[in-house]
Specification:
Elements: H1 3-40, H2 56-64, H3 77-82, H4 85-92, H5 98-110, H6 118-125, H7 127-140, H8 160-175, H9 179-224, H10 238-244, H11 256-267, H12 270-284, H13 286-311, E1 315-316, E2 319-320, E3 325-329, E4 340-343, E5 348-352, H14 358-375, E6 378-379, E7 382-385, E8 388-393, H15 406-415, E9 425-431, H16 439-454, E10 459-464, H17 469-473, E11 479-483, E12 485-488, E13 491-494, E14 499-500, H18 508-514, H19 519-538
Parallel strand pairs: 2-7, 5-10, 5-11, 8-9, 9-10
Antiparallel strand pairs: 1-6, 3-4, 3-7, 11-14, 12-13
């Protein structure tokens, strides 16, 4: 044989060797990264991807289910925004897969609790199980985000594709009778099918990625079923396994052999036929596929919460009880937060100076209620509660686009609280009620609104205000609590500790002084406050 032949053989062997070594090295690095991750329990995949739609499952959930949904317990957009829940979600997001990421967001918004918390004990006592579970999920990864709704997948199949697929074979047959015509027909069929394939790929490329990902999900489920987990996957995958084994043909080309396979696929329109075969089979079995998503999402979300608990030493598991109380509660987003204890006996009116901790305290309670209902986790030493509806009206603002003023935005937000489900417990958190109007109307409207809410025994209301007048007006139906501060050596100090009774300090004028406003502003304002207080004491309505 000629030297060129041997050179060609050696070249092929060298290419295959490099490919094999690269594959072995990548697998070794992957296993090493998993071991390192589990040792230190850091976020495994913290890359911010521009296509990371972690709320897709939540947004399409009503379309996916045929059951009538009780949406009253869902966390509405206003409450989610008021509580900075996007930040809370991202701090919890130790998930390994895009499905888990979507599922975690979904259970937080819908308050549909994770259930199989026994997994935490299983992986704690079986390191090998933990490693195998994380490895399978990490391989699935977050490179692709599923659509969930199969009705969005495009169907572009036409019966003429059958003829196009046969043209190259027919052209080869013609060569036996007339070589030039056969060659021309073969080249024409190649050009035609390449154009058809490229055009088809342009329209459905994202769908192909999602189909391939769905195939990987099914494969991952088969491997997960082999693990000794306490809760197993119940649905039958046999209808999907047969067609799923061909999904590898949709894989994107990254190697030289892959380009050869691509030429064959384009020649016979294999991608088009396989795409529609998978679409048809997956649509017929979409309930099974959604069950796969839910199972992986549950596993991944549980692992994420367990890891978050590991990083937050103050976490515990809440208990259900008719009485609402907690001890050493903190806000999960605040480092070195001051813990607070509380026993709910009646609706609460919170007073206190600016920046003393009223809003943060209410947010800490509300966020922990959401975490308790969705993830059986709170940042407290002890937490007992009755599951229910959580709503807030806090960070109100005027809306330029809708034309709503601050006050209009506020009353729209408050009106949401009047939709009361008599069968469920409600937790309402109201900050600076009717702030957007004058003092007289604010006190009157606030008194009336809070009195109205107090007549419902299933409501647990936390309201914060600067209007001390409300502490007298509502003293019989609202429990007065406050936060305060001390000023020493021209420095203001907040202890962020909840105290009994109405607030007994004010700091607005002192802050003006400490910020070095002209002294005449401070002294004049102080005199006006003294005159106002004296006049109020002599008033017949006081």
């Amino acid at each position: 044989m000629s030297p060129d032949f041997y050179f060609f053989i050696l070249l092929i062997i060298a290419i295959l060797t490099v490919m094999l070594i690269t594959e072995i090295r990548q697998r070794y690095q992957f296993r090493k990264s998993i071991k390192q991750h589990l040792k230190h329990k850091d976020i495994y995949d913290d890359i911010e991807r521009p296509y990371a739609f972690y709320d897709t499952y939540f947004k399409v959930f009503e379309v996916l289910t045929t059951k009538k949904q009780n949406t009253s317990r869902w966390i509405d957009d206003k409450t989610w925004s008021d509580l900075n829940m996007n930040h809370v979600f991202h701090s919890l997001n130790y998930t390994y897969t895009s499905i888990g990421e979507n599922h975690l967001y979904h259970v937080l918004r819908l308050q549909s609790s994770l259930t199989h918390f026994s997994l935490w004990e299983e992986i704690k006592h079986d390191e090998t199980l933990h490693h195998r579970l994380v490895t399978l999920l990490a391989k699935l990864g977050k490179q692709i985000y599923p659509k969930y709704d199969w009705s969005h997948y495009q169907h572009r199949f036409h019966s003429i594709y059958y003829l196009f697929s046969l043209l190259p074979l027919l052209s080869i047959g013609i060569m036996f009778f007339h070589v030039p015509i056969g060659i021309f027909a073969f080249l024409f069929s190649l050009l035609l099918n390449y154009v058809v394939s490229l055009r088809f790929k342009h329209y459905v490329e994202r769908d192909i990625d999602s189909l391939f990902f769905t195939g990987r999900v099914i494969y991952t489920l088969k491997e997960l079923k082999k693990l000794p987990l306490s809760f197993s996957f119940k649905s039958d995958l046999s209808a999907l396994n047969h067609v799923n084994r061909w999904r590898f043909l949709l894989l994107k080309v990254t190697t030289l052999p892959g380009y050869f396979v691509l030429m064959v696929k384009y020649t016979f329109l294999i991608d088009i036929h396989l795409y529609h075969l998978l679409i048809k089979r997956f649509k017929e079995n979409q309930e099974t596929i959604h069950a796969c998503y839910r199972y992986i999402g549950e596993l991944d979300s549980l692992l994420a919460i367990e890891q978050w608990r590991y990083h937050h030493g103050g976490c515990t598991t809440p208990t259900h009880h008719d009485n609402f109380k907690f001890s050493r509660l903190t806000h999960p987003l605040i480092e070195d937060a001051v813990p607070n204890d509380f026993v709910f006996k009646q609706n609460v009116l919170l007073t206190g100076s600016n920046a003393s901790g009223k809003s943060t305290f209410m947010k800490a309670i509300a966020v922990n209620l959401i975490l308790a209902q969705a993830a059986n986790t709170v940042t407290a030493e002890h937490f007992q509660y009755q599951p229910g509806i959580i709503k807030t009206t806090m960070a109100n603002a005027d809306d330029v686009l809708s034309g709503d003023s601050y006050f209009m935005a506020e009353i729209k937000s408050l009106k949401r609280l009047l939709a009361i489900d008599s069968q469920l417990t409600h937790y309402y958190f109201i900050d600076e009620i009717f702030k957007g109007t004058n003092t007289a109307e604010r006190v009157a409207a606030s008194t009336s609104a809070l009195t109205y809410l107090a007549q419902y025994p299933q409501l647990k209301v936390f309201a914060a205000t600067h209007d001390i007048e409300l502490t007298y007006q509502l003293n019989s139906i609202y429990h007065n609590c406050h936060f305060n501060e001390t000023i020493e050596k021209d420095r203001i100090h907040f202890d962020y500790t909840l105290k009994e009774g109405p607030a007994n300090t004010r700091n607005a004028l002192e802050l003006i002084r400490l910020m070095k406003f002209p002294n005449e502003i401070y002294t004049d304002a102080k005199k006006r406050v003294q005159r106002f207080e004296a006049a109020k004491k002599t008033s017949p309505d006081s």
